[in-house]
């Protein structure tokens, strides 16, 4: 397992896409995530690291050795795509053993390693099956075994589970997390799924339009997003424009009380996390509040997603479902907020 | 630099071979057809000869007639068979359809000369069909129509249809394989019969490969030798027979003539094909206003 | 009403067409096994193997002719493969100036019976001492067969899944390993199709072989020609069947050979 360092990496795709990464370091044994909207260059970055795409300039280092010009077959970096890319004319064991065979490993070793790898991904006994006889999840497990059996210096995964159905996706996340902890594999994992990011990553980078906007632990980024784009992408979708005067942030039609740490700044935006807001029906509470009208309610697995109109603006609020507590559209409600949980940008 | 010239280098060996043999052959033919006069001089004597020769034009029209008729019949027959195979695939069994397709490919195992021979033993005045009709009291010993070595060229046409129809099926069948059953079911929901579905959705997809196949068959048939040699008559001769006999007549002075006939035929085939292409392009457009997708959308 | 008629008509029509393909074959078999075919018998007289004996008889020269036919067809096919592989890759994967023109030139010879073109370079063949030799005939046979090989392989190359090649590189396969284990298996159906067409066309060739071979290179089509052109019908039938048998066996062994190759190059 090894560390990966990227310096001044640049790749241009005509007519208009450019990937530019000034510096990125992934530590040995780290579960590193990359998250960003579709088309922002995540796949391109992984292809550059594996050598499938050549950069226009810049350097890629693996474990203190520069590999920018090394061909992909000599890098021993595993890459798992969204689709499993199994060789259709080979059986499961031939697929898994392919890399070892190419390296001309001893036959007996190959056999043992294949069985071990298949056991790791929970496919013991599937040796003689052809890919056409496997389910989507099983295929992706074979792809995983095929990469792991080579003991790669790093394992890159490009939205590997996004084609699977939700239950299977959770199961696969569990599996990869377990394998990563057992084997201390360096992993770079791409997703555009926030939930996946928060469950899996030790550290992550948020990308947009070919650039890295911020790196850090998922929680750190969530609590201190560097700009609106990052915040928005992480699901902080109450972004109010305005200005600070005294203890208050003034936005269109209302003002919000600031906590002690937040005063005297020149912030232009105030951000409210949707789950940090609480709707109350009138009972008293000491916290500061806003008043508004419920516009829209949707229910999703244990949570209400509620839109409340406050003056001319809409706030998105996530509330845990509680028996006996109901929301009705059109109702006048109070929205409680924590001055300390406010983000100013 | 390397990536720029790589495709050219890869294609070069095959291209050089073809250019040498094919373009070399045609240019060689042109040059030799122009060498009927004094050595080293260009002479149009051979062309003047054949253009003014009744034999040539008789041969040409005879050849054009059987080539056009056989390609028309083979195309229609091929299309009908492919429709049948489509029906079997969709409604009965796709394996059976594939098996029938293979069986219908049988004549491709025989060379042209065997195809000619088969038509001869089947259709000659004392051939198998004549005997069958005689046994069934449907024809007398000498009342069987002349179908081989006949002045119209029926024997030649039938032999070509027999030999080229499998080729047309071979070119069209893959299209059928690509049409998912769901299409037909969607059509049925909308109340469209198989025939209607075939006409509206499948037929437009078949037109491009059918045009290619019939073009190949027509051009090839025009100058092919064996079938008209075995099943034709002495006058008018098929172009191929006419040219080849001049070529090997023993008198070297006839060779420019033979080559002029070949070159002229090639030019005429090219012109006729262009003409047909232009006409059917318009005709194709009225059937299929849009791209391939449209064939389905009209359902 | 119409559709019920249709349901009845289609099987009848297809059966008729299949019969029209099978009857000639049966007739050839009967004919080859009979000694005489007197009017108005539907089938030839007493069963006799004399035609087959004649055909097989060394004096008739059909076995050497068969060998010559196969030698020419297989060599031409091999050369076609070597020439067409890179050309097809180029046509399928690169966008270069003149690609369409190159493709047209490569496919054009399929349109014209090769003898008509060969007459134009007959003199060059004579000059290079290629007439009356097997190499000359093989060279001439490239003309009608190469286009089909190029076409089949181009389709094959165009449908290759390159993501699998990438995957092979990622797993440490070098260029030749990747070609051998991943690319080639995907090309095999195209190789089989191209080879089958190439072999069939070469075996069937008559006039080109006669012109370039000058009657010295005797293939089966040359040997059988006098018999199918008004000669003894029984011997003609036997020759026709011998030809079909040769073609069938060659195609079948080609198919098995390719399949065997395919399965032997599995990893274990
Ligand atoms: N081989 C290529 N040639 C040209 N443009 C490409 C190529 N690969 C990717 N791109 C472009 O680069 C951008 C980023 O693509 P990608 O890395 O696949 O994004 P992501 O994986 O984040 O969705 C897209 O605009 C895409 O169109
Ligand atoms: Mg991507």
From TrEMBL, chain A:
One of its GO terms (molecular function) is ABC-type quaternary ammonium compound transporting activity. SMART domains: AAA. InterPro entries: AAA+_ATPase (IPR003593), ABC_SmlMolc_Importer (IPR050093), ABC_transporter-like_ATP-bd (IPR003439), ABC_transporter-like_CS (IPR017871), ABC_transpr_FbpC (IPR015853), Mo/tungstate-bd_C_term_dom (IPR008995), P-loop_NTPase (IPR027417). One of its GO terms (cellular component) is membrane. The keyword Calcium does not apply. Its EC number is 7.6.2.9. Residues 4-234 form the ABC transporter domain. It comes from the Bacteria. Keywords: ATP-binding, Cell membrane, Ion transport, Iron, Iron transport, Membrane, Nucleotide-binding, Transport. PANTHER family: SPERMIDINE/PUTRESCINE IMPORT ATP-BINDING PROTEIN POTA (PTHR42781), SPERMIDINE_PUTRESCINE IMPORT ATP-BINDING PROTEIN POTA (PTHR42781:SF4). This is ABC-type quaternary amine transporter. It comes from Thermosyntropha lipolytica DSM 11003.
TrEMBL record, chain B:
The keyword DNA-binding does not apply. It comes from Thermosyntropha lipolytica DSM 11003. Belongs to the binding-protein-dependent transport system permease family. The chain crosses the membrane at residues 7-31, 66-88, 109-134, 154-176, 215-236, 256-279. Keywords: Membrane, Transmembrane, Transmembrane helix, Transport. Signal peptide: none annotated. It is a multi-pass membrane protein. This is Putative spermidine/putrescine transport system permease protein. CDD domains: TM_PBP2 (cd06261). It comes from the Bacteria. PROSITE patterns: ABC_TM1 (PS50928). It is found in: Cell membrane; Membrane. One of its GO terms (biological process) is transmembrane transport. GO terms for cellular component: plasma membrane. Residues 60-280 form the ABC transmembrane type-1 domain. InterPro entries: MetI-like (IPR000515), MetI-like_sf (IPR035906), Sugar_ABC_transporter (IPR052730).
UniProtKB/TrEMBL annotation, chain C:
InterPro entries: MetI-like (IPR000515), MetI-like_sf (IPR035906). SUPFAM superfamilies: MetI-like. GO terms for cellular component: plasma membrane. It is found in: Cell inner membrane; Cell membrane. Pfam families: BPD_transp_1. Residues 66-254 form the ABC transmembrane type-1 domain. PROSITE patterns: ABC_TM1. One of its GO terms (biological process) is transmembrane transport. Keywords: Cell inner membrane, Cell membrane, Membrane, Transmembrane, Transmembrane helix, Transport. The chain crosses the membrane at residues 12-33, 72-92, 104-126, 138-158, 179-200, 206-225, 237-258. It is a multi-pass membrane protein. Belongs to the binding-protein-dependent transport system permease family. This is Putative spermidine/putrescine transport system permease protein.
